[in-house]
């Protein structure tokens, strides 16, 4: 009865979801997006793909009892070899400690394990916190967290067998804390292998690859490290980079990357620290490798100081306390000497940075801009180094104190009122409208607020608008990689285009409050609120054994995912055109 009941309940919920989708599509039929909605519906019901194509990990077979009982490290050694097993084992304990607070606060299965979307979310958070790494395949990129399996990372970088090793566990009961730590440690060990590859590339382009290790001079050791850092910071492909490209880049390094000399100085300090423990082998390959591994581990957090400086500069142009800069002021800053702030309106809109809830006063969301891909620096085949979301430092203490996936509004208010940020003092009293929003979220979830959901993230943006990004509905924005942006400069405006953008808003009329007929008070603002929930990691439901039932549930889940994609497409279209009823605004809460 339990199995049949759960299956029927899920089926009923999905059917209701489909009916709701059809109703929403019908409402959109009066707009120019009606054809797109009807076409999406015909594709959905006429050509729904097999469940495996909707989400890779939805079709995995549960592991056998022997697979569940075997030690993951032993399997890792069989697939990737003893050296990689040893490297992962040496790092796993540190990852367990770093992951534990987040792991405790995430929804888990009955076996205290995380499902694939939970593992992906956890790993992304931990690598950003630990190194400032935004790992390819782990960050959401504007999509939902269950859009791809985190194990897909290994297919490209360690082979299909390594991918299958983790997929089997993800597709069964999910991963325990220890297994998630082994996953992360294995990934990190692969990144460190790339460090050695890039070091060999530096030796090659400097024609030092045949020099004996004990004959490398101090000067050459520094040249090797500098060349390595240039390839990392500028995202040069170390497999194909040529000596001539390196030479040309050196000539123009100050123009290409104005903060190069600060970076160079910082790397020298790291080398001094490492060499002090190994003074007799200061120029050896092993010591240089150790220096560069330390650099790779620490660089993300060190360079985040540039992001803080960028935020401070943007706040000079802030519109009241909204956490936003009017678009005309954003481009005006670029015309007044800033070498940044030249991204096109299309780029800002596509990446969820442009707030057009008030069409007459489009503005740049400071936190979303800071965390956008145009501010990413170093990159490798595994990750990019981007600005670290300041909201992570605010969410972490909430996770530590709550220790659960959700909490009553009163508990959250108690904690947040004592929580300071870089721009918000504490303790403080949260305004009544913000408390009401929190109560509304709780009402949707049986009296408690899920702390890993879109609505709570939006609430945090209202509470800390300069630190927490505005969370868009998945599928309504995109997130180009640094490599994609580098391949095309179309997202950057030249000076004439900047002037035209500023002039287009210079004659804009002062907005009038239609309810009173008065112009708004200086310093007031309105922030958008989209009343749509998305749980980054679904709240745990009772696990149901049995392959046949699992297949049914996966098919319903695939259907629901397709419906959600259709809804997101329609909403994105309506948001882009400023359709009524999508955005609600309210006064700033800070």
Q: Could you walk me through the main structural features you see in this protein, from its secondary elements to its overall organization?
A:
The protein is mainly alpha-helical and 590 residues long. It is 56% helix and 4% strand. It has 25 helices and nine strands. The strands form four sheets. It has a three-stranded antiparallel beta sheet with strand order 2-4-3. It has a two-stranded antiparallel ribbon with strand order 1-5. A hairpin with a 7-residue loop joins strand 3 and strand 4. Helix 6 crosses helix 19 and helix 21 runs antiparallel to helix 22. It is globular and about 70 Å long. The two termini are 51 Å apart.
Secondary structure layout:
Layout (H helix, E strand, L loop, with lengths): L1 H27 L5 H13 L4 H4 L10 H5 L2 H9 L1 H24 L10 H16 L1 E3 L16 H6 L2 H11 L6 H29 L12 H17 L8 H9 L1 H4 L3 H16 L9 H31 L8 E3 H9 L9 H6 L3 E2 L7 E3 H5 L12 E3 L5 H12 L3 E2 L1 H8 L15 H13 L4 E2 L3 H10 L18 H6 L7 H12 L19 E4 L17 H30 L7 E4 L3
């Amino acid at each position: 009865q339990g199995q049949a009941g759960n299956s029927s309940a899920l089926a009923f919920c999905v059917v209701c979801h489909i009916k709701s989708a059809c109703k929403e599509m019908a409402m959109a039929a009066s707009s120019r997006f009606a054809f797109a909605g009807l076409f999406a519906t015909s594709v959905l019901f006429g050509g729904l793909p097999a469940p495996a194509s909707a989400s890779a990990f939805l079709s995995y077979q549960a592991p056998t009892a022997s697979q569940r009982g075997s030690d993951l490290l032993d399997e890792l050694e069989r697939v990737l070899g003893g050296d990689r097993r040893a490297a992962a084992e040496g790092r796993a304990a540190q990852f367990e400690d770093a992951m534990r607070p987040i792991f405790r606060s995430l929804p888990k299965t009955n076996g205290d394990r995380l499902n694939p979307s939970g593992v992906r979310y956890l790993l992304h958070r931990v690598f950003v916190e630990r190194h400032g790494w935004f790992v390819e395949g782990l960050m959401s990129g504007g999509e939902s967290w269950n859009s791809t399996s985190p194990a897909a990372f290994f297919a490209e970088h360690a082979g299909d067998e390594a991918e299958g090793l983790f997929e089997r566990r993800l597709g069964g009961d999910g991963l325990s804390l220890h297994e998630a730590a082994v996953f992360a440690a294995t990934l990190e060990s692969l990144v460190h292998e790339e460090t050695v590859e890039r070091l060999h590339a530096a030796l090659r382009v400097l024609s030092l690859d045949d020099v004996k290790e004990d004959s490398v001079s101090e000067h050459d050791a520094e040249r090797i490290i500098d060349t390595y850092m240039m390839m990392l910071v500028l995202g040069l492909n170390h497999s194909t980079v040529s000596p001539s490209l390196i030479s040309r880049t050196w000539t123009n390094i100050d123009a290409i990357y104005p903060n190069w000399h600060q970076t160079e100085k910082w790397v020298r300090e790291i080398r001094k620290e490492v060499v002090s423990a190994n003074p007799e082998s200061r120029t050896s390959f092993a010591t240089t490798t150790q220096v560069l591994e330390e650099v790779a581990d620490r660089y993300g957090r060190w360079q985040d100081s540039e992001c803080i400086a960028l935020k401070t500069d943007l706040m000079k142009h802030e519109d009241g306390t909204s956490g936003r800069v009017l678009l005309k002021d954003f481009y005006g800053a670029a015309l007044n000497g800033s070498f940044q702030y030249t991204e096109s309106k299309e780029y800002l809109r596509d990446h969820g940075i442009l707030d057009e809830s008030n069409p007459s006063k489009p503005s740049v969301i400071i936190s979303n801009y800071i965390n956008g891909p145009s501010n990413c620096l170093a990159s490798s085949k595994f990750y990019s180094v981007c600005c670290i979301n300041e909201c992570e430092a605010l969410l972490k203490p909430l996770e530590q104190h709550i220790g659960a996936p959700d909490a009553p509004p009163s508990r959250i208010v108690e904690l947040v009122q004592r929580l300071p940020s870089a721009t918000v003092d504490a303790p403080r009293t949260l305004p009544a409208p913000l408390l009401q929003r929190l109560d509304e979220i709780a009402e949707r979830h049986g009296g408690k607020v899920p702390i890993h959901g879109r609505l709570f993230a939006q609430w945090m943006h209202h509470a800390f608008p300069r630190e927490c990004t505005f969370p868009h509905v998945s599928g309504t924005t995109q997130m180009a990689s640094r490599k994609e942006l580098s391949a095309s400069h179309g997202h950057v405006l030249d000076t004439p285009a900047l002037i035209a953008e500023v002039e287009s808003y210079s004659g804009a009329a002062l907005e009038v409050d239609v309810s009173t007929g008065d112009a708004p008070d200086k310093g007031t603002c309105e922030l958008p609120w989209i009343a749509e929930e998305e749980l980054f990691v679904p709240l745990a439901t009772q696990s149901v054994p049995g392959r046949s039932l699992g297949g049914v549930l996966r098919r319903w889940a695939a259907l629901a995912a397709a419906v959600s994609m259709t809804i997101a497409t329609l909403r994105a279209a309506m948001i882009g055109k400023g359709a009524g009823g999508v955005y609600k605004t309210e006064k700033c809460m800070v």
